[in-house]
Specification:
Strand content: under 5%
Oligomer: single chain
Number of domains: 2
Largest sheet: none
Length: 191
C-alpha cells in the first residue's frame, strides 16, 4: 500500500531547508568577510549541496537578499514597539537592538567601502535610523523639524556611540542608556 503524497510535510521540509540556508548565510556574514560568503560555504553551513542552495535561493545574491530581509524585519520589530514620542521606551528598544544586532552591523559597516552589498545594507540602515529618529522624537520637534536638531539626535543615538561606550570602554548597559538619554535630552532641551 502506498502512502498518499503529503504536500504539507514536503512544504515544511522545504521551508526548513530555506531557513537553514539563510541561517548559514547570516552566520557567515557575522563572522567573516562578505567576499567569503560563497555558495559552497553557504551549502556546507546549511548541510546541503550547492544545487540545493541554488534551487531554494536562485543565487548567492538571493541568499544575501534573504538575510537583508530577515535583518530588516528583526530591526523593525526591535525598534518599532515604542509609540512616537515615548522617548524612554524608544531608547530602551534601541539599546536592545544594539545589544542584539550591533556587532553584526559594525561588521558590515567595516566592509561597506569594498562590498557593494554591504554598502547598500548600510545605506538602508542609515536611512532607517534617521526615519526612526524622526518618528521617535517627532512629537517633541518643531514642524518641520530642522536638520541640525535631527542630525544631533541621529548622532546621539548612533551605533558608534553604543560601540564606544559599551564595547570600547566596557560600560554596563545601564550606564550606556544613561549617557544616550543625557545626550538626547540635551539636544531636545537646547532647541
Amino acid at each position: 500500500m502506498t502512502r498518499p503524497y503529503d504536500r504539507s510535510r514536503r512544504a515544511a521540509a522545504a521551508a526548513a531547508t530555506t531557513t537553514r540556508i539563510i541561517d548559514a548565510t547570516e552566520h557567515l556574514l557575522a563572522r567573516g568577510a562578505v567576499r567569503d560568503v560563497t555558495l559552497p560555504a553557504i551549502a556546507a553551513g546549511a548541510g546541503v549541496t550547492v544545487q540545493t542552495v541554488l534551487r531554494h535561493m536562485a543565487s548567492r545574491d538571493g541568499c544575501l537578499t534573504a538575510v537583508a530581509v530577515r535583518l530588516r524585519t528583526r530591526v523593525d520589530q526591535q525598534r518599532r514597539a515604542a509609540a512616537p514620542g515615548d522617548v524612554p521606551a524608544a531608547l530602551s528598544d534601541l539599546l536592545q537592538h544594539y545589544e542584539a544586532e550591533g556587532r553584526l552591523i559594525l561588521h558590515l559597516l567595516a566592509q561597506a567601502p569594498a562590498e557593494p552589498w554591504a554598502l547598500a545594507a548600510v545605506e538602508e540602515g542609515r536611512a532607517y535610523h534617521r526615519a526612526w529618529v524622526l518618528r521617535t522624537f517627532g512629537p517633541r520637534l518643531p514642524s518641520p523639524p530642522d536638520d541640525r536638531t535631527v542630525d544631533a539626535l541621529v548622532a546621539a543615538t548612533d551605533l558608534y556611540v553604543w560601540r564606544l561606550l559599551r564595547l570600547d570602554l566596557g560600560r554596563p548597559r545601564a550606564d550606556v542608556a544613561a549617557v544616550i538619554d543625557t545626550l538626547t535630552q540635551a539636544v531636545l532641551e537646547r532647541r
